[in-house]
Specification:
This protein folds into 3 domains: 23-71; 73-121; 124-182, Roll (Nucleotide Exchange Factor Grpe, Chain A, domain 2). It is built from 4 helices and 6 strands, in the order ααααββββββ. The protein has helices at 3-20, 29-71, 74-96, 102-120, and strands at residues 123-126, 138-145, 154-159, 161-164, 167-170, 172-178. The chain has a 3-stranded antiparallel sheet. It has a 3-stranded mixed sheet with strand order 2-6-3, with no helix packed on it.
């Protein structure tokens, strides 16, 4: 056998015994017990962290599913608000042109039906007239001096605002009172 073969045999034999060697070999029983307890504690800690992470993933997934059910129609509802606006403008135009009869009544009925369907999916109008201006749900498009209304109170609604459940779908576009000019 050549020197290279002997070195290879010794090298592989040395690695095999090192890999299979018991790390506790040569330690007294108390040291071995301490090492085993430390390893058990590490595994327990790792298990608890993994279990907690799994529970957090489950909670996030459940919340995501709930939000998808609650707000899944948000984009569709936002587009339907243009239809509501159009029906309201058509009804108002029909009434102001003196055609208040059947045309306006038909538009009212259609508008009521559309609003009841939207309400079934959690879409509700924002009450703005007479309320204190709230930048979270109102969009001020102008201010108007008023002696009758408190400053920062909504005195007119230009376009109705809507919520879907607790989320703002569209802010109400409003006219806000300010103190009269002196």
């Amino acid at each position: 056998m050549s020197d290279t073969d002997k070195q290879a045999e010794e090298g592989s034999g040395g690695n095999a015994t090192e890999e299979n060697a018991d790390p506790n070999e040569g330690l007294d029983p108390e040291a071995r017990l301490k090492r085993a307890e430390d390893a058990a504690n590490d595994f327990r800690d790792q298990f608890l962290r993994t279990a907690a992470e799994l529970e957090n993933v489950r909670r996030r997934a459940a919340k995501d599913i709930e939000n998808a059910h609650r707000y899944g129609v948000e984009r569709f509802a936002r587009e339907m608000l243009a239809v509501v606006d159009s029906l309201e403008m058509g009804r108002d135009a029909a009434r102001s042109a003196g055609e208040g009869g059947a045309v306006a009544e038909g538009m009212d009925a259609t508008l009521r039906l559309l609003m009841s369907v939207l309400e079934k999916f959690g879409v509700t109008p924002i009450e703005a007239a007479g309320e204190r201006f709230d930048p979270e749900s109102h969009e001020a498009i102008m201010t108007q001096p008023s002696a009758e209304a408190e400053p920062d109170t909504v005195v007119g609604v230009v376009q109705q605002g809507y919520r879907i459940h607790d989320r703002l779908l569209r802010p109400a576009r409003v006219i806000v009172a300010r103190a009269p000019d002196a």
